[in-house]
Amino acid sequence: MNKQDQPLIFELSREDRIGYSLPEMDIPEVELSDLIPNEYLREEEPELPEVSELDIMRHYTALSKRNHGVDSGFYPLGSCTMKYNPKVNENVARLNGFAHIHPLQHTDGVQGSLELMYDLQEHLREITGMDEVTLQPAAGAHGEWTGLMMIRAYHEKNGDTKRTKVIVPDSAHGTNPASATVAGFETITVKSDENGLVDLEDLKRVVGEDTAALMLTNPNTLGLFEENILEMAEIIHSAGGKLYYDGANLNAVLSKARPGDMGFDVVHLNLHKTFTGPHGGGGPGSGPVGVTEDLIPFLPKPLLVKNGDKFEWDYNRPESIGRVKPYYGNFGINVRAYTYIRTMGPDGLKAVTENAVLNANYMMRRLAPYFELPYDRHCKHEFVISGKRQKKLGVRTLDIAKRLLDFGYHPPTIYFPLNVEEGMMIEPTETESKETLDSFIDAMIQIAGEVENSPEIVQEAPHTTVLKRLDETTAARKPILRYKKEAVATH
Ligand SMILES: *Cc1c(COP(=O)(O)O)cnc(C)c1O
Q1: What is the model's pLDDT at position 360?
Q2: Among 111, 206, 210, 336, which is 20 to 30 Å from 411 by CA?
């Protein structure tokens, strides 16, 4: 059999082959229909694959080898901060006292876990310069929504119900306008200027008595630090609006600049990016939100408080927006982030930013002769180049991304941000060595050469992967997610 054609587990199935042995049943057998009302019962038994333990082990091991992860290769996916996740985090998160507690256990029995959460909140307060932090939100976008709901509650409490608009720059992360909409606001877009920064004149034009907040992604999705942040804060605050800082990419400013010091009222962080929670493939995240004093009453409840030596949940918070996530949030990710912060220490966290920014600038400058650089300025943790020049030769950014697969790299984020034509958003992160950066740069330079000399190599890539070009539209619009014999037959 061709190794490339890994059959489906259902196709490996042979009648009566089993992969387990259970002890003989020593309790009376019960009919399912005695336990579950008939309308909930399946009419037919599900068709489950019948395979041996070895079959199943080989099958999933083979599939797992097709994955690309940070542990297997370079992963410069812009805005996602695919840095290495230290394994000591995993050891700590697997300790019995953290991994095997129950969320409904009495607080007396989980004081250590609550203390870890409390300490993590303290560290994040210090890192962001905010007055209080909640660990409840499950991811970045969830943190955005939580923060906006607090801003909404704040304005409503002040009888300021006309404030229905949230201003979002066109260089913001895509989740920002989405969160504003889900939180019941109308989104107003402000343009970027020729430097790739928020256009202050445009901002002044749209701000007004109906402004609830400005949401700022900083560094913005071009990887540029918003230099006029204090002026922007002044414009929004003097109009009575609140300032929201999308801190998902805090890797760029960690231990160097704090949203609280810049005048922001709310900030969310992505622990699964900056603070080495493993992510990708939709795994659990954690998007803590920090707020200033006047938003504290609206924080999700319960709030973790310290009473003398004891950690407790405070439910008595009448103005709270309520719960946004059951139990302790994604506790395991919080344990990993705490471990990371404690093992790095303040100097280590500062070095993270310095190296992340250095790596990105090094790579940007070395690629600049070969690709178009739409904003020729120092970047922070990531940068955006354009494949415009290559497009003129008939090769699109998508082709370049596919060609990178042949070199064993995960491609950068492509066609984002929207304000760059044929954009490639590259975030090397601080954990990569100069050798790795150079190898990737060499691959990019080789591809740029191929585009000029033999473009079909790039247009027809990838050549070395298990599957070649997929029909991405059909895969997105009509995915086949369940096994059906007929579906496989035509497959
Ligand atoms: C990743 C990211 C988000 C969204 O975070 P999720 O955890 O994926 O919901 C928001 N803003 C920015 C700038 C990001 O990079």
Answers
A1: 98
A2: 336
